[in-house]
Structure formats: C-alpha cells, structure tokens
Amino acid sequence: MKKILFISSEVHPLIKTGGLADVAGSLPIALAELGQEVRILMPKYQALKLEQEVEYRCTLRVNNRDVNILETRLPGSGVIVWLVDCPEYFDTPGNPYTDEFGNAWENSAARFSLFCRIAVEVSQNRAHLDWKADIAHCNDWQSGLVPALLTLEPHRPSTVFTIHNMAYQGLFPEATYIELNLPGQLWNPGALEFHDLLSFIKGGIACADHITTVSPTYALEIQTADYGYGLEGLLHHRHHELNGIINGIDVEVWNPETDPRIAQNYGIDSLAKKAGNKAALQQHFSLPEEPATPLIGLIGRLVDQKGIDLVIDCLDELINYPVQFVLLGSGEKGFEHRLKNLSYLYPDKISVSIGYNEDLAHMIEAGSDMFLMPSRFEPCGLNQLYSQRYGTLPIVRKTGGLTDTVVDAMPDTIKDKTASGFVFEEPTAGAMLETIKRAILLYTNKRSWQQIQKNAMRKDFSWQQSAQQYLNLYNSL
Ligand code: ADP
Ligand code: GLC
C-alpha cells in the first residue's frame, strides 16, 4: 500500500476549467479502490463547490505566510482532500488561473509557488498531519516546483510529474524567482531555469523521478520540436523515464443508461431512445426538429489548441450539406464572436452557446449524432471518450490521445467491428470537411452506423487499467 499525495490545481466536482479536473476527481478514487492511501491536495479557492463538511486541520508557516490546511472529502467518495487555505491568494473571485473578468492572475507565480511549498511540507510530514507521502504525484506546471524542491530533501517521497498539456508552462521573469525567495541551488538549466526564465513545468520535467503524459502518442509527440515548446530535447533525454498512460473517465458520471441530466436514458440495446435526446437538444438550441438530419456537437475551450479556426473556416461550406451543428464553449473572444455571427447567419443549421455548462455538456453528448474534435494537438482529450460511450461518433484529427482512442471507420475496421469514429490527418478545414462528408454519407446507412455506435459504446474507458498502470509505476520507483 502506498501513501500518495495527488497534487492538482483543479479537481472535479469542486472546481473545473478542463480535463485536468476530471482526471484529478476520478483517478484518486480508482487508486483508492486499488487499496492505496490517497490524499488530494489543492488550493481552497473562493469558487470551490464544497458539499461535504470542511474541518480545520493545522496551520503552517511557509515563506513568511501562515497557511491553514483544511480537510474535506471528494463528493461521492471517501477520498480525503486537503485544502490549502491562504485567503490572500485564493479567496478571490475567479477561477484557478484568471480573475472574474478572464484576465490571468498577475500573481500566479506567487500563488502556485506557495501551493508547491505546502505540498512539500505535507509530503515530508512537516504539516502536523501525521502522514508522510511515499509518492508525490504532481500535475501540470502549477505543481512543477514540487519535484524540484524535493530534490533538496534527503529523505523524500518518489515524485511523478504528469503532463496534461505542454502548452501551459508557468514561465516568469528571473526577478520573480528572486521575489519568491526560491532556493538558489535550483536556478540552473538542470532545474528551474529555462533561457533566463523561471519555468515551473521544467521543475517537473527535469527533476521528477518519472514523467508521464496522458497518452502514448503525446509522449512521443512532445519529444519533437512541433509539440515540445523548446523542452523536446530534455524530454527526449529523459525518454527512459517518460511514458504515456491514457486517461480513464468516470463511468458513473458519464453513463447514458443512468445519466440524470439527459432527456431519455438509453444503452447499447436501446439505441432508438437516443432520438429523444436529439429532439430535446434541437429544441434547446432552437433548431428544426429533424430526426434524420445528422447533428454534430462540439464542446470545448475555444482556444487555438482545439482547432476552432478550422471549424469556423469550414462552416460556410458545411451548411450546404444536410447537417445541423451545435457548439458549447468559451474562451478567446474572437472565436466567440465569429461563431455567434455564423449562428445568426444560419439559424436553422448552426446554434452556439457561449459559456460553461455541465448539464448542457451531457445533453450534447447524448443528443448529437457526431462529435467534432479537430484539435491541433490533444494530450489525451476526454470528450471523444464520453462521445463513444454515448454512441455519438467522434470526428477527430489524428493527434495525441485522439489517435490512441478513436478507430477510423474504414472498410476493414467496419468489417472487423473495431471502427468507432472518423479520423483525419491534416490540420486543415479541407481535410476536416472531407471527413465530415464521409461521416454524413455513412450516417445514411443505418445498419452500418448502428454497428459503429455499438463498437464505440462497448469500449472500456474506465480507470481500471490506467490506474493499475500508475500503481505499477509507483511500485517501480
Ligand atoms: P481540455 O482539458 O484540454 O480542455 P479535455 O477534453 O481533456 O480538454 O477536457 C475538457 C473537459 O471540460 C470535458 O469534461 C468537457 O466536457 C469539459 N468542458 C469544456 N468546455 C466546457 C463547457 N463550455 N461547458 C461544460 N463543460 C466543458
Ligand atoms: C489537458 C489536455 C487534454 C487532457 C486533459 C486531462 O487539459 O488538453 O487533452 O485530456 O488535460 O489529462
């Protein structure tokens, strides 16, 4: 049995901006089910949705600040969550990375370096919690200083650093390093220094005992200049200590047979009932209720990573085909405006909801026929997994975790019943449009379509296998 401190800047359902929260809210449960002693560590943000009781545990002083550790449980499980309570940094309106107006926090480095220092104190049993970690499992740049700081400790836990997204690195000027009072020994290119900048992510990549990322393909991609953001050399240098473990999903929350947020529950043997969800979705989005018109859904952060520009570029042409398109997302204002304008131009075909809405996300997964994910890069991606479980065939670009989890519908894969979606290679609107047309054509062949839906719904995306892989890794360190 291992004592695992799982360190994350967001955890579903307490707070979520993206897939990291889904992972941090479900992998620890799967590890606990495998008999491990897991504690989650996260900041106590003002916006946390706390349902369970919160208890005061202790106060510790780091870098001249008093910080409380509070304890609660992950809703729906017994997993203990330790909350880092520093009101000056975290009791402010907004999300983990931006203020309420969407501007990045100016003191992000101070916030997350404090978080990292607390993680070190907790791991080392210096927080009066009577608990010493065997493994400190860090996630993304917000916890990147932890493996680096722990290298300065003689008796320390083993460290794992999981990269959920190389695009966010936590880069700050050298002056910040000095202001934060970080140890001088770590200011070198073998630790936190990256071309004269402080790099949080580099702390994880250079100093963790092992690095993982969230799919095998992304683990290879980040060792190349196209995906490595200048860290490809270091990642390649460490390739013996780097591997990809595909994310699982919470199969309770994302289950079309029991999902309380959808109009009509259905399963692999009652696929006809999916139609009720399509009608409800068309109603919700004020689209004509046409059962036979293929309905394409998209949910996501509206940022460059997700290939939103490709979608915008192809919508003018897509509307010439018998198809409807619904989108839920928020992000860059330019994308939001252009998408909204397209929906005003083609109100019978395109409907757009700007914002973050979990109920609606479930309705889109259940009610769409196809799910579009034309990502430029995608470390793992979760929506293509939810989609397959809901018999909503994903149309994805061949990159990262999308490559590893979606099998393109081709004559041979249709025949051997492995086909589970549609895949295109080039990140161009043209390549995407051709593949959407291929999907629309196949949609008219009801028997083939249903078979592919069933192939997709039968796939096992639970955490079972991946959690075991993490456990094997912990045991090997
Ligand atoms: P990323 O972490 O890069 O954003 P993922 O596919 O791993 O991408 O995870 C995104 C998660 O966030 C999914 O659970 C998705 O349903 C959810 N999500 C993204 N945007 C929205 C939104 N606007 N409303 C509701 N859920 C959203
Ligand atoms: C990141 C990635 C996404 C991945 C998620 C959870 O935000 O962009 O691909 O699924 O983390 O690992």
Task: Summarize the helices and strands and which ones pair or pack.
Layout: E1 3-7, H1 19-24, H2 27-33, E2 37-43, E3 55-62, E4 65-73, E5 80-85, H3 87-90, H4 108-123, E6 135-139, H5 145-150, E7 158-163, E8 171-173, H6 174-179, E9 193-194, E10 197-199, H7 200-207, E11 210-213, H8 216-221, H9 225-228, H10 232-237, E12 242-244, H11 274-284, E13 295-302, H12 308-318, E14 324-331, H13 333-345, E15 350-354, H14 358-367, E16 370-373, H15 383-389, E17 393-397, H16 400-405, H17 411-415, E18 422-424, H18 429-443, H19 446-458, H20 464-476
Parallel strand pairs: 1-2, 1-6, 2-5, 6-7, 7-11, 11-12, 13-14, 13-16, 14-15, 16-17, 17-18
Antiparallel strand pairs: 3-4, 4-5, 8-10, 9-10
- Total domain units: 2
Give the low-pLDDT segments. none
**Envelope shape:** globular
Biggest sheet details: 9 strands, mixed
What binds here, in terms of ligands, is: adenosine-5'-diphosphate, alpha-D-glucopyranose
Instruction: Order the strands across the largest sheet as they lie in space.
Output: 3-4-5-2-1-6-7-11-12
Structural class: alpha/beta
* Number of H/I helices: 20
